[in-house]
Specification:
This protein has 372 residues and is of the alpha/beta class. Helix content is 37%, strand content 16%. The protein contains 15 helices and 14 strands. It is elongated and about 75 Å long. The chain starts with 9 loop residues before the first strand and ends with a helix.
């Protein structure tokens, strides 16, 4: 059902590593035919993470499942000619070169329009196609640092960075949304598009609340002092007796009251709205939580409506009864196992299934199939 959404849509993926390939994997999940064009040596992602017996990274196989890979040397005349032929038959081109690099290969915005006026071209980069930082190298942690994604995350002592990489996945999702919108526009107008998406601005787009709060606080939003970043006792991580952690998100008064009542601390109920940061109340809760193991506390609060959740280790996530019931997590390839998570949407109540593995084809075969 889901695969019918973009059936017949042809996507060329000239990106590498994580953000671009994840964006095109979402398009493949929705039914697009994705051709991943790699240099002769392959995507460098092939060497990152645990490798299978064939020498290829399991992470690379995961992020590119559902696609067809072909290899072209875009520094050669033959490689560029082959890419030009593919562009003529494509609906979407996503690339993650540094700004200007594709133009040097002969595939700038004007050249792409001449080859295929209906093409949706999405350039996914670190800092965008213009501006002082356009040519700057970066990775997730630096994009997050620039756009405000780190300054307010963590405890008062220091910021922390998230894993998996937030900017990479946020940028991938932003690119996918923009591509889908451009395809809808093309269906109405017949015109292609040239889209500029940056990983840092995908994070920046989430910072309106943070920037507003900081502006009103004189320029900074104190880490570990706010309602949602560690300053509130009702919305925080706590350590248990066995060195594990639990998450409490009892923002609403009814949830907070239920939590306090379940722990036999009714006197805490009236303290929910003490001034931030609530160091004293946090310490009181921490002491009670630290007296029980994670699983014992989880069992105690299992039937309490209070937004409480044990912090699960990755292996526990896979075994959780709700995760299992929803059926999005699949272990593929028993000999060299990988854990795949399907596209997280149910179309007409149909559960998404596993993706087909990536396959390799010669570019000539693909062009012949597209011209047939």
């Amino acid at each position: 059902m889901m695969a019918e959404c973009l059936s017949g849509t042809r996507v060329l993926d000239l990106s590498q590593y994580l953000p671009g390939p994840y964006a095109t994997q979402m398009l493949a999940d929705l039914g697009a035919e994705v051709i991943k064009v790699e240099p002769p040596a392959g995507d460098p992602m092939r060497g990152i993470g645990p490798r299978d017996a064939d020498g290829v990274s399991a992470f690379y196989k995961l992020i590119n499942a559902g696609k067809t890979v072909t290899h072209l040397d875009l520094k050669s005349d033959a490689g560029r000619a082959a890419l030009g032929s593919l562009v003529r038959g494509a609906d979407v081109l996503l690339e993650s070169f540094r700004p200007g690099a594709l133009s040097k290969l002969g595939f700038g915005a004007e050249a792409l329009r001449e080859l295929n006026p209906r093409l949706v071209h999405c350039a996914l980069s670190g800092f965008g196609q213009s501006g002082p930082y356009a040519q700057r190298a970066g990775h997730d942690i630096t994009y997050m640092a620039l756009a405000g994604g780190l300054a307010t995350s963590g405890m008062a002592e220091r910021p922390v960075f998230a894993h998996p990489p937030t900017a990479d996945f946020a940028g991938a999702m932003q690119a996918t949304i923009a591509i889908l919108a451009a395809l809808l526009r093309r269906a109405n107008t017949g015109q292609g598009s040239s889209i500029d998406v940056s990983l840092s601005e995908a994070v920046l787009a989430w910072q309106g609340v943070v920037l507003t709060g900081a502006l009103r606080a004189g320029g900074s939003a104190s880490r570990g002092h706010g309602l949602l970043n560690g300053g509130a006792a009702c919305y925080r991580l706590y350590e248990t007796a066995d060195g594990r952690f639990v998450a409490l998100g009892a923002l609403e008064e009814k949830f907070w009251a239920n939590f306090c009542t379940a722990l036999r601390r009714p006197e805490w109920i009236a303290r929910q709205h003490e001034d931030l940061p609530q160091a004293s109340l946090i310490a009181d809760i921490a002491a009670v939580v630290r007296a029980e193991t994670r699983d014992a506390l989880t069992a105690r609060l299992a039937g309490v409506d209070c937004c409480f959740q044990a912090v699960l280790e990755p292996g526990e996530v896979m075994r959780d009864q709700h995760i299992a019931a929803r059926g999005l997590v699949h272990q593929v390839d028993e000999r060299e196992p990988r854990v795949e998570v399907s596209f997280p949407a149910f179309f007409d109540a149909v559960q998404p299934g596993p993706r087909p593995p990536l396959r390799v084809r010669d570019a000539t075969e693909i062009m012949q199939a597209w011209m047939a």
